[in-house]
Design goal:
By secondary structure, this protein is an all-alpha fold. It has 21 helices and no strands. Helix 11 packs parallel to helix 15 and helix 13 crosses helix 20. The chain starts with a helix and ends with a helix.
């Protein structure tokens, strides 16, 4: 017994505790802790709206929109990397920074855009949850309240880090989409031939291109990642790790989107001109010849549930942070709900309201693609605001300037122009 107590005392001795503290304070260990916001916001980017848009793109146009999906990776990284820099070096969320630099009017304008994008996104996420439930004969009266309750419990779990780990775990279910694309066995020759034949003059093609752009650049992504970096207390020494987090996330989300497009193109391809995706069940049915009914439902359901739940968490948290930043009240997942009720109330309200809307409206899938096009219209305002903040608010060494500034302006202009042109053309 004496030996046992001696061992315990040595284990819990001050020298041992100091050693543990030194290990945890090593730069590499701390850098790993900076990972998370980029991966999480990108997993959320592959939401139900993105899935439906990508699937419809593959069905209608085969692989012709696949190059656009991959060309957007560097642009997505460049935009989200600015949010990382702004969050680390200013210590302020996007909404608060806009309010302090440009005034309440511009801050409210950004908040309106965020609100529209978030509500549109949340409705599509809950249509995904309802669609998965209906594949298994479960009514919306059961699936929607259950999903809402889970989303509330995750955010009330205690801290930002805990919420982030739970959400990342759920988001990894989206890797099922890669397995679906692999099983589809796309013909490489067909991929190359169709990807090099781009019908720029076609109205429907350009409208779907605008929807893909809008599904890639959600306004809530900017609000979320910058606020998450601040809430996580990421320091300048970990900028490199945060950049890698963002780069890997940007690549992963576009791979997932491409996987859905490829699976849809390989099963129905450009021969499906008259096929219209009206829900998750239709996409799952397209996979039945490859996987069988049960396997198709299971694999796709796992991916869709992961996508919809993560996107719902991220977009609603972005809105809650955005309201707090623009209105100037306390907002942090580190605070108890009773300490910061006005942070948690917007989160709960938009979750509950979206679930109720999907529950009473029988068919809102038309919002899936339409919401993405709305994002494409909001995108120019968000990029201009980001660039303006990055040229004025950052320390001189981190300020956006020179060739990189002009590169971002050029590629941002091209992406915005294509999104606006396709969106307007499709509405005419």
């Amino acid at each position: 017994m004496r030996t046992r107590y001696a061992t315990l005392n040595r284990t819990n001795s001050p020298s041992m505790q100091q050693k543990k503290s030194r290990i945890l304070s090593l730069p590499k260990i701390q850098a790993v802790a900076a990972w998370g916001p980029g991966l999480l916001v990108m997993l959320a980017d592959t939401d139900v709206g993105s899935i439906v848009t990508a699937a419809q793109s593959g069905i209608k146009w085969g692989y012709r929109l696949l190059p656009l999906v991959f060309l957007l990776i560097p642009v997505l990284y460049m935009i989200q990397e600015l949010t990382v820099r702004l969050g680390i070096f200013t210590g302020l969320g996007f909404g608060e920074l806009v309010r302090k630099k440009f005034g309440r009017g511009w801050a409210w304008l950004s908040l309106v855009g965020l609100t529209v994008a978030t509500l549109g996104s949340l409705v599509t996420e809950f249509t995904g949850v309802a669609g998965v439930g209906e594949l298994y004969g479960l009514p919306r009266s059961l699936t929607l309240p259950t999903a809402s309750g889970v989303l509330l419990l995750i955010v009330l779990s205690g801290t930002y880090r805990r919420m982030e780990l739970i959400a990342l775990f759920i988001g990894l279910f989206e890797l099922a989409f890669v397995a679906v694309a692999w099983v589809a066995h796309p013909d490489l020759g067909t991929v190359v031939r169709q990807a090099s034949a781009i019908p720029f003059g076609d109205r429907e093609f350009m409208f779907l291109a605008a929807a893909l752009i809008g599904s890639t650049f959600n306004p809530w992504m900017i609000f979320y990642q910058q606020s998450a970096v601040v809430d996580k207390k990421t320091v300048p020494e970990h900028l490199s790790a945060a950049r890698w987090d963002t780069a890997i996330g940007a690549t992963l989300t576009q791979i997932l989107t491409a996987a859905v497009l490829v699976a849809a193109a390989a099963t129905l391809g450009s021969g499906g001109e008259n096929v219209q995706i009206n829900g998750i069940g239709d996409i799952s049915a397209a996979l039945t010849p490859m996987l069988g009914v049960k396997a198709a439902h299971l694999v796709f359901s796992i991916g869709v549930l992961g996508a919809s739940m993560v996107a719902a968490i991220v977009s609603s948290l972005a809105l809650a942070w955005g309201f707090g930043e623009v209105l100037g009240y306390r907002r942090s997942l580190e605070n108890h709900p009773l300490q910061t009720p006005w942070f948690y109330v917007p989160y709960a309200l938009c979750i509950a309201g979206s679930a109720i809307l999907v529950g009473v409206a029988p068919n809102l899938v038309w919002l899936n693609i339409g919401a993405q096009v709305v994002n494409a219209f909001i995108l120019p305002v968000m990029i201009v605001a980001l660039i303006a903040l990055a040229t004025r608010s950052l320390p001189k060494a981190q300020r956006l300037k020179g060739g990189y500034l002009w590169l971002l302006i050029c590629v941002g202009t091209v992406v915005c122009a294509v999104g606006l042109y396709g969106g307007v053309l499709g509405l005419l």
